[in-house]
Structure formats: structure tokens, C-alpha cells
Amino acid sequence: PDLKNLVVLPLPLRSREHVYRQLDMEPGRDLFEDRNTCFEFLDEDSAMQLLACEFAANNGYNVARIWEHCFGNRHDTRTGFFTLMASAGYNPRQFGVWFGDKFEDEPADPLVRYLGLAYDDNVHDWQARLGFLPGRADRDTFLGRMTTFRGLVDRWQGNYIHHDFWGQRDEERRRAIAFATKNADNVLGWCALAMVQDRCASKDAWESVSEAWAILADKSGMRYPALYEQARCLGNAGLGDQAQAKYQELFRKALQEGVLPPLDSSFRSVLEGGKEDAWAKLMKETAAKCAADKNRPVIVTLAWQCYQLGDTAMADTLLDQALDRVPTEEKALTGIAAVKFLNATSRYDRADKILRDLLAEPALAKSAGLWRLASQVADNRHDSIRSMECLERALDIEYARLPEVFDVQPIRNDYGRLLTHYEWLADAAVSLKVTPPKDLVQRVVKAADRWRHLDPEATELPNRVAAILRKAGGEGATDLAWDYATTPLALKPNESAPWVSLAWSLRQEGNWRLADKSYEMAFAAEPTNAQLLWDRAQYLQHQGQVAESRNLMRQLADGTWQPRFNGLKAQARQAIEGR
């Protein structure tokens, strides 16, 4: 074969950043900025690398400029360069002189003709008006078929196809359909026939397209969609009885092959438009067959299709049929399918009832996924307490079956939601002046310990848990809160700042005893800091603990401190003397 017009790009294709740096150029600047202008003087191999990286980046404008300055000016006008421009979205006819000369020199070259016609605005405009393609003697080659298909797109997707004067003609429709049937085994035929179908203007046109779909069904591997479109066209042509028969035959054959076929509104409208309500009859017949074959989840899917087609009454009828006297072995799958359908259609109350029935089964109650689904449904019902209870059950099951490797982000999200809920319960109990749930402290500790075990990097967790425990109160809760709050501080035994920060947080909560204890621990960590004694003494005085405050003042006044604390020492002595 003649290879003189081929352009072979260096592989693998590299990124612009890589190639530009390799050629000592700046990838962030234009080709004609600063040192990038040197690209005009690159050798052929380097220029080809530069062109290849711009082609890989789909930058057709730069592909064209590189070709022009590195190859075109050297009289290298191989067709491959124009093909690369077109592939990268650039019109090769912009180079009118070079491309025009090539078109005149090689008019018989299929690729040159294709590129010339594909980017000729005049050809596109006349094709959109007159529809002269497909012609009677179009070349039956790949490029010939592509040229014809482009012409069909111009015509059948253009603005003139329904024009009073320029509109479609019977003969051109027959030629377009002939092209589609001739290419029934590839995408060009399917797209061409679909375009003609979308622009049918008469009963005869619909019938012609219907016959063409039958040919595509026989010649291609996609028999179902072709026959479905055939039935649609028959319905649009006003041949309702034939369309009904085709639709029902197609539907039943798909079911026999074990497939529930997808449906759309035309299927329903054609079946409902006959002498008898074939739609309802077919749906109920299908549901009965699925129930007999122990395929009740399929009935739920069919109900979902009916709902999407606007027949909510039939959807409810089918759902009731699917859930009526469900055998034990089908209960789980059928129930889950029903819940997902009801959840998607905002009928959360019924979904919740089905889930409660499922979770009452001991075997199904071991499913973490089912508890999570119940939590989601409860969330949708705005029942946060039920939602968190279900999430707790799911996390209990998952914790017992932990994989070796897991993503910690979902762990943080789920346990974070639990702690937020526990804090809400504690706050509500305080606000309403009632006793919190008896097991609240236990639930908080369990969730916190598991979270720390699964996510050791959750450094803010102890303080958060401690705050919840202090709000919850109860026997042992205060001590537990202190343990959680001070556990991280053990890692900083000689620092007072963390203890002071904890004291400040406790002061905001109004827990003066633990705040005082925190000040005490801060001074123990840094006994040379007189400021800590002063702050503690002042805080105790504000809390009415005058005796303890005076003892600390005396300790401050009598102690030996660094010179920078002389002012505090003098103030402490004055406070003791009552001055």
C-alpha cells in the first residue's frame, strides 16, 4: 500500500508538561511567547514529539501551528497532518492554500475528499437544504459511508427538514432508509434510522421506518430494541392492533428468556388504547407468572416501571401482589426490593413496617446492611431515635466482623453521628430536667472505645466524649468523664497549657470542682508558675470558696518565685491583709 501520506506519531503519547520541559520550553506559555518561539527551529523528530503532545491534549490549534511552521513551510503536506488537526477539533481548511492545492492534486484520494467535504460550510448548507446525500453511487467504503452519514446528519438534524419548501421528500427518505438497512450491522445504520424516525411527517413515513426496523432486527445483534422501535412506529402510524400484538409478543418472549424488558410510555399508551385494557391484563398476568416461578422481586421491579410510567394504581396493585403470602425463602429479597421501591417513592411509613417485619426474623436480624437500610428509612421519616438505634445495631454487627483493611472515613462518619445523637439526648434531658436514659453512659463509652480502637488518630475524641458524659451525669459518669478528658494529657506530663485549656472548658460548662482540679493539675505540671496559683485562687474566690482561695494566696505570698512574678506575689500579700 501507498504509505507516503501517513504520519506516524512517537508513542507512548506524552503530556505537554513532560515534552515542553524536555525541549526546554515553558508549558504554561503560548508557542509564540518568550523562549517557546524557538519551536520553529526544532529538528523533525523533536517537532513531531511537540505535535504529538498537543494532539494528545486535544489542542488542535497548536497542532495546526506546529505543522505550519515546522512541516508546512518545508513543503511537508502529508494527509496525515490534516487528519490529526481534524481529530483534535481544528478545521484543516483554514490552511486554504495548502489544503486547496492538495485537494486539487489528489481529488481521488478518499481521505482528502472526506476532509474536504466534512469541513466545507457550503456543502453542509446545501445538504441541509436539498438532501442530495446519500447519492445513488456513493462509494461503499468506510470513508464513503462516513461522508454519507455526515450528510444525513446535516439534513435530518438540520432546520430545513420540516420546511414548507425545503422539507423532506419521499425519495430522499427512501434513500436514507436504504442506507440504514445497508448498514444494519453497525452504528451508522442505527443512528441514521433513528434520525429519520424522529422526523417522520406522515403515516406512510412511519410505516416505512417500521419495515426498516424489522430488517435491522434480523441483521443486527440487538433484536429487542429494533423490534421495540418497530412496534412504536406502528403505533405512531395508527396501526394500534398491530403495535399491540408486536409489543406483547416481544414482552412475552423476553420474559421467557428470563429478562424483564425495559418499557416506556409508548408501550403503555398503545396497550391502553386498544379495545380491551391489554396493559392491565398483561401486567397482572406477568405478576402471576413471576409469583408462580418464585420470582417475586421481579414483580416489584415491574411495579417500579409502572410507577415511572405514571400508573401508580397499577404499581400499588403489583406491589401488594408481590407481598401477599410471601414464602419464607423469598421474604428477604422481596422485602428488600419493596423497601427500596417505597423509599425511592417517598412512602417511608410502609417501608418502615416491612423492615420491622424483616428484622423480627432472627436470621435477618444478623444483617448489618438491613439495619443500615432501616436507619436510612427512619431518617427519611425524621425519626432520629429509631435511626440511631438501627445504626447502633449495624455497627455492632460490623464491629464483630471487621475486615483486615477498612476505610476510616465511614467509621468517623458513623460513630460521629452516634456521639452527636448521644449529646442531643443528654442536652434534652438537662433542658427538660428529666433523667437521661439509663444506658446512655454505657452506650457513649462503647461507641467511644470502639472508635478509638478503629481510629487511633481521632485525637479530639476524648474531649468530646468527656463533655457528653458530664452532661449525662449519673453514677460514675463524672469519673469517666475525667478519665477521658485527662487521658491525652498524660502524654504531656510537664506541660500546664493543656490542663489550663481543660479548666477553661469546664468553667464554661459550670463544673467548678473539675475546673479547680484541672487548675491543680496544671500547677502540679509546672510548679514554678505563680500565675497558675493566682488564676486558681481567683477562680475559687469567684465560686465562693474563700477559705481555699486564701490558702492559695498565702502560698503565693510566702513562696519563692522568679522575679517576673514579684507583682503577683505583692498582690497576693495585699489580698491576704485585706488591702
Number of domains: 4
Q: Which structural class should the secondary elements be placed in?
A: mainly alpha
| Helix-strand sequence | HHHHHHHHHHHHHHHHHHHHHHHHHHHHHH
Number of helices: 30
Overall outline: flat
Unreliable stretches (pLDDT < 50, length at least 5) are none
Number of strands: 0
Strand content: under 5%
How helix-rich are the residues, as a percent range? Answer: 55-70%
> What average pLDDT do the residues reach?
89
Computed CA radius of gyration, to the nearest angstrom: 40 Å
Q: Largest beta sheet, briefly?
A: none
The rounded distance between the terminal residues' Cα atoms is: 112 Å
How would you describe the overall organization of this protein?
The mean pLDDT is 89. This protein is mainly α and 579 residues long. It is built from 30 helices and no strands. It has 4 domains: 1-119; 124-275, no CATH class; 418-491, no CATH class; 495-579, Serine Threonine Protein Phosphatase 5, Tetratricopeptide repeat, CATH 1.25.40.10. Helix 18 packs antiparallel against helix 19 (348-359). Helices cover 68% and strands 0% of the residues.
What's the topology here?
Elements: H1 16-22, H2 44-56, H3 60-70, H4 79-87, H5 96-105, H6 110-118, H7 121-130, H8 142-156, H9 170-182, H10 187-198, H11 203-219, H12 223-236, H13 240-256, H14 265-272, H15 278-292, H16 296-308, H17 312-323, H18 328-344, H19 348-359, H20 368-380, H21 384-400, H22 408-432, H23 440-454, H24 461-472, H25 477-486, H26 497-509, H27 512-525, H28 530-542, H29 546-558, H30 566-577
Name the features.
579 residues
Summarize the structure.
With 579 residues, the chain is an all-alpha fold. It is 68% helix and 0% strand. The chain has four domains: 1-119; 124-275, no CATH class; 418-491, no CATH class; 495-579, Tetratricopeptide repeat domain (Serine Threonine Protein Phosphatase 5, Tetratricopeptide repeat, Alpha Horseshoe).
